[in-house]
Amino acid sequence: MLKPGDAVVLEDPSYSYNLPIFQSAGLRIFPLPVDKDGINPEDLLGLHKKHRIRMIFLNPIFQNPTGTVLHINRRKRILELSSEYGIPVIEDDPYSLTSFAGEEISTLKSMDNNGNVLYISSLSKIVASGLRIGWIIGPKSVIDRLSDAKQQVDFGHGSFTQWIANDFLDSEYFPAHIAGLRGHLEKRRDAMVSSLQQFLPKKWIIIRQMAEFICGVG
To answer: For residue range 177-197, what is the model confidence (pLDDT) as tens digits?
Structure first.
């Protein structure tokens, strides 16, 4: 989908391993700052007018590392810009099922009526990182090209781990596992905030705001 010299947009800050992947492909990278509501779509529009953006890479739900959720109005606007200017969006979503607050958060892909979003996720954060299983949802033409490229690189994924994952996802244990995972994450959040309050009381106001921002609470 891209060639050396093409311009792509990443969130700033972004997951640490994203940047080297794009750099090694010879792409021009333009970071967009993340505030409490995610990236600003109008900043994206400004970049596109200057540099002709060819792809947007986003982690809109519990963004790594800030923990922010892209505001619904911004999600709608990004999809509008993607459709208007023909800019594909890669939605990286490994975390949405971990929401311990119980809220339903619409993915960009679920709101995409024009087939401009490629949705990627994995079992690494919700089941077991050792399975090394992920998936992508997108137009058939793109999936066919990606499948061919993957086949040339590694001759396809191991069948045994896929059978394990498929059986687990179809079983009655998966919903219980997710509920337990959410509970553990909430306890760890509470323990971190409590420790910050106990051991760093003088700086607590500032640190509490940072912790709440990172953990998506407050």
So the answer is: 999 999 998 999 899 888 877
Element (H, E) at 12: strand 7-12
Q: Is 70 helix (H, G, I), strand (E, B) or coil?
A: coil
Expressed as residue numbers, the domain containing 176 is 171-215
Residue-wise pLDDT tens digits, 93-110: 999 998 887 777 889 999
- Please indicate, yes or no, if residue 96 is contained in any of the structural domains: yes
- Provide the β-strand partners of residue 91: 58, 119
Residue 2, domain member (yes or no): no
Q: How distant, in Å, are the alpha carbons of 59, 107, 136, 155, 156 from that of 140? A: 23, 20, 11, 20, 18
Neighbours of 181 (CB within 10 A): 16
